[in-house]
Design brief:
This protein is mainly α and about 290 residues long. The protein contains 11 helices and 4 strands; from the N terminus they run ββααααββααααααα.
Amino acid sequence: MEIFGIPHQAFLGQLMLGLVNGAFYAMLSLGLAVIFGLLDIVNFAHGALYMLGAFAAWIMLDKFGVNFWFALILAPLIVGALGVAIERTFLKHLYGLDPLYGLLLTFGLSLIFEGIFREMYGVSGQSYPVPELLSGATNLGFMILPNYRAFVVVASLAVCLGTWFLIERTRLGAYLRAGTENAKLVQAFGVNVPLMVMLTYGAGAALAALAGVLAAPIIQVTPLMGSNLIIVVFAVVVIGGMGSILGSVVTGLGLGVIEGMTRVFYPEASSVVVFVVMVIVLIIRPAGLFGKEA
């Protein structure tokens, strides 16, 4: 059986692989969208935080025997605490300034983190085992689906939808959005806006780290893993609309699938198709698919 002239196993296999990649794009772009949408900071350190989450999981397993399930909780907490320290030490001095300052600062921090880990571990990469509970694969008839990759898709969707609901449909999310629009007014109602801002950046860092832990059993844990992905993730955020949480999730998943399908029909274009889509979207709708026009 063929689909568009392609054997259906190859077509559906690439579709599933694209969905897995899209899940990572969605989770990483989600953290970026949260930080930009609520704090107006272009967080170029996001790729480094993603890398730190993967390395935290690997170090905990290699040095202390901490398994994947505990690392899935501890690594985001550790990197989230680092994010809080970054916000309190550096970023709080840049609020109200041009976002370019935040971009340059976080870009510098990402180079520092990457350089430290390159010096310590090199660039060859470290392997992280798939958790035993999720080892093996399931025969879907049209393809053999690794259980862990299916888990990644489900977990990513759950985290993305949960974050969207928290920010868009709860009182806490309303406080966060109001605090970024008019901090003095919200503080007059007794809300600690600086604390909310600090925790928001920490939560965005924790989301990046969570994506890193989920990625560790699939790809090699290397200091370059964040820098190799962050440009694509920024393109996803721009296409979805800067600061749009729903846009980041939907666009991340959609572009992952588009990238996977491109590998089937025109493999040479698979590495640039995301940027081609970005150019087309910006020409037609500069604010992005889900962004608000100025």
